[in-house]
Every structure is written in C-alpha cells, then in structure tokens.
Amino acid sequence: MVVAYRSQYLLRTCKTSSIIKTLSFRQQDTSAYRKNYSSICLQPAPLDDLAYIRLRCHYRRLHFSKEPTRSPLTKLSPQEVDSILRANEFTQEFKDGSVKSYDSNQLPSNNPIEDTRSEASCLLTTGLLVGVFDGHGGGACAQVIAKRLFNYITACLLPHESTLQYLLTLDQPKPPDLIESYNDKVQFVEDVRDIYKESFTKFVKELSEEGYKQHFDMSKAIERAFLRLDNDLSKEAIPVNGEINLKTLSVAMSGAVSCVAHIDGPHLHVANLGDCCAVLGSLSETGSWIPKKLTEEHNAYNPIEYDRVMSEHPKQEKETVISMGRLLGQLAPLRAMGDFRFKWSKEIMVDVVAKAFGEQMIPPNYHSPPYLTALPDVIHHRLTPRDKFLIIATDGLWDCVTPLEAVRLVGEHMKGKVTLQPLKLPRKNMKLSEINDMLLQRKEGLKIKPRDSNAATHIIRNALGGTEYGIDHTKISQLLTLPDDVVRVFRDDITVTIVYFDTEFLRHCPA
Fold first, then answer.
1. Is the whole model's pTM more than 0.90, yes or no?
2. Surface-to-core class of residue 386, CB atoms within 10 Å of its CB (0-12 exposed, 13-18 middle, 19+ buried)
C-alpha cells in the first residue's frame, strides 16, 4: 500500500520540484514510531534525495518498460529465479463440488513478509473459504486474523442446533474442528492460544443463546464474523488488572486489510476490507476472456468511500480526517482490522497506548474516533458455466497488472498447462472425433506452454518480468536481488490465490 501511493504520486509528475516535494513528505519525522510501525506511514529510506530520484527514474524504466532490459548486471540464473518464485507455491485439488482446485503463491518484499493467506474447507457446513491478508505496521495482525477469521465465519454459518452441539464440545481437551485448513504453517504460542480460545468460546455461546433464525442472511453473517473478531482483538489488547500483554497489544497496534471468498456450489460470496482485490475470469461466447472486478478499494481515491469517511466526522475536521490521501495523514486504507490507534477512544489511547509506546503514537488531530472500521463489503455472485476461475490477490499484484491482464494470463496458462503433463483420456470409449479435438487443443497449447505449472507463480513471474516480447529474465533478476533497504520502493509483498471452477458441475447443479 505504501509503494502504491508513492508510485502513483511520483509517476503523476515530471517536474523535479514536485519530486522534491514528495521526498520531503517521504522524509517527514516519523522516528518516534518507526521502530514498531514502520509500514503505517511512508517509510523514510536510508537514501539521500538524489539517490532516491535516481532509483525512481530507474524504476520507471525497469518496471513499466515493455522492452526487454539491456543490462549486464543479471545476478540470478533462470534456475535460481525459479527457486525463488516457487518457494511458497501451493496447489490443492478437490474431487467434488464447484471448485476443482486452487493455486496459491507468495513473493515477499518485506522481511519478514507482511502478507498472509489462508484456505480451508468448512466441515460442519458446506463450502470452501479462501482469503488473502495484507498486513501493515508489521505482520502480526494479518497472521492472527488469517488463523482465526475462518472459524468465526464458520460459526456464524452454523444452524442453531449445530451451534448448541458444538458448544458442548468446546470444554473437551481437543474439540472438533470447524474447518480443515490447507497449507497452514502458523501455530500460536500457548498463552495467546488460551486467550483466543476463551474469546471464541464466548462468541459461540452468544450465538447459541440467540435461538432459531427464520431468515438467514449470508452477507450479514460474514459481516458479523469480521466485526466480532475485530472487537475481540480490541478487548484482548486492553490491560487486565493493569497488566499490559505486549503480544495482544502488538496485534492491535498493527493492522491488516483482507479479501475473503466463500464458495458453496454455485454461490460465491466475496468479503472485501481495504485494498485487496478479487477478479472473476469468465469466457465469452466468442472465446475471449472477460474480467469482472468484484471488489472496490477502500481508500481515498474511491469517492464513495471518501464521502463515507468525511460524513462520519464533524465539519471542523474536513481538512484533517483525510490528509495527503491518508486517514489522519497516516493510513492508506480507510477500512482495516486491527489498527486500534485509529479506533480507540482518546482515553484508552492515553491510558494504554501512550503509556506503552509514548504519546507520539496518538495520531495528530485525533478528535472524534473511531476513524476506521472493520466492516467489509460483501457481494454475492451466482456462478455460471462461463465462470472459469477467481483471482484473489493483495495490492502488490495489482500494482503491476490490470484485472484484464491478470485474467488473460491465467486463461492462457489454463490452455497451455495441459501440455505440461502426459496426455490422459478423461474416460473410456471416447470417439475418435473427441480424441482428435483433444489433440488439436493440445497442439494449440504447445504454442503457449508455460514455464510454471502453478498459475499463481505464472502470474507473479509475468507481473515482474512480462514484456511485449515475453518474459525478461534480466528484469526479474534485478527485482529479486534488490537490497532490503530499497526493495519496497520497487515492489510490495505479493500474495495470489487462483480458484478454478468445475464447469460440468456448474452446468448441471440446481439453482
């Protein structure tokens, strides 16, 4: 998010004076809270102005050029580039339902990476959950909500009788799981795990006491899960008996935006909070790819979102609520989980945050909190046989490619991917004409045979090194070998999940 704003601001101007003005903003005094919250504000880099301008000019040539890069400075071999790009890729296949498989991958810019991803099947209800989470101010909040949010969503989807039965099992040493997670590598430490379990048990108990609901609203259930988890993050960070828990407080002080999809048969629900993006890839009757953007960014460049924020605060604050394209001049997304330094009352900020981190942690012009909400936008789309895949990604990808480019890349990958595996007939007793059609499709696929079997890796590779003439290895190599202190100037963390739909299932499933 930091890079996106800085890039947009710099690339809109050609005059040196304007660049210097931007640099002065970049180098404003943020030293008081830089140590723990370096990504909330624009990060002052250890570069003088001239060096920074040179980097930006080089970035324009390197990142936006459609020509192959001519440079003798290639440091990585193609095999080394492959190793880096494929280090975090993951694929999961399914036998039944509307989802055939998904590909996922991450490429870090921050060290450690602040993005997180999560995918899981619902066990006591039906459906698949997939999500990407883009952290800022560190990765703590993103990691925690990626691990907890799906349980909150699934709990909200349970029928009343199932909620009552599940509540009875929570006292067991190992209660049954609500979800089956894939590629889950994060485990909470014991003391924090107990706090989180207590919060979740209390939430399930409240759900069980509400009784049977005649009309179920999927969108409202997802919204409730987001808001309740965010509220629990707040309560868990408030000191008990005067004792501050720095682990839960660090989660509350960092923040995360997210995009989560729930897919159940032909029903697709997407919940968006912040500036991640979900794009549906559909095939037209003429065989061309059509992107459908399902989300809108919650930032100052969205006029509807801008007006919403301004309407929630006194007119006296109209010059300060959103300043320099940021909330209170500091935070780019206008909706996020965590980030309680933009939500808590002035009293809590003074009694808790200022005592723990200093008064400089209170944002300027902090008069009418909360300034930030964790309420997501939730949309529903009924899948059709023409809907082939869903791309969910953090803004690190969308800084590099458009939705149309992303959909075309995945569509071409689908066509060329078949050539990476030996030919297998899908069923016995096929007609010769059907086999001939398969062979013709395979012949066409050979023309665009991809280097990567994982579509998320394929799209990241093209985002970094794609040109009109194909992949530029030198370009990718340069972007992958930048030093830690400048890499964020050039690219952000990238997290991508691509969900493939089963066309035959969607063709025959009931409404």
1. no
2. middle
Q: What is the predicted pLDDT for the residue at 462?
A: 95
- DSSP for 24-45, written as a single string: HHHTS--HHHHTT-TTTSPPPP
Q: What is the pLDDT of residue 33?
A: 33
400 DSSP 8-state letter: T
Q: DSSP letter string over 321-353? A: SEETTEETTTBS-SB-EE-GGGTS-HHHIIIII
Radius of gyration of the chain (CA): 24
From residue 487, alpha-carbon distances to 1, 98, 371, 402, 423 in Å are 14, 39, 31, 22, 42
Q: What is the distance in angstroms between the CA of the first residue and the CA of the last residue of the chain?
A: 39
For 248, residues 6+ apart whose C-beta sits below 8 A from its C-beta are 192, 195, 233, 236, 237
Report the C-alpha gap between 334 and 214 in whole angstroms. Answer: 34
Q: What is the pLDDT of residue 15?
A: 30
> Would you call 128 helix, strand, or coil by DSSP?
strand
**3-state secondary structure string across 202-265:** HHHHHHHCCCCCCCCCHHHHHHHHHHHHHHHHHHHHCCECCECCHHHHHHHHCEEEEEEEEEEC
Which residues on adjacent β-strands are paired with residue 117? 132
User: May I ask the CATH class of domain 78-508?
Assistant: alpha beta
C-alpha distances in Å from residue 474, one per residue of 51, 54, 75, 478: 22, 19, 8, 6
Cα 347 to the center of its chain, rounded Å: 32
Map out the domains of the chain as residue ranges: 78-508
CA 122 to chain centre: 20
Give the integer Cα–Cα distance in Å for 66 and 467.
5
pLDDT of 431-464, one tens digit each? 888 777 766 765 665 556 789 999 999 999 999 9
Residue 429 to residue 26: CA distance in whole angstroms: 67
Per-residue pLDDT of 94-104, as tens digits, reads: 999 999 999 99
Q: Is 47 exposed, middle or buried (0-12, 13-18, 19+ CB in 10 A)?
A: middle
Q: Of 491, 479, 483, 485, which Cα lies nearest the Cα of 46?
A: 485
Q: What does DSSP assign to residue 500? A: E
Can you list the residues of the chain whose pLDDT is less than 50? Answer: 1-53, 72
- Secondary structure percentages of the chain, helix, strand, coil, to 5: 45, 20, 40
Measured between alpha carbons, how far is 266 from 262 in angstroms, rounded to an integer? 11
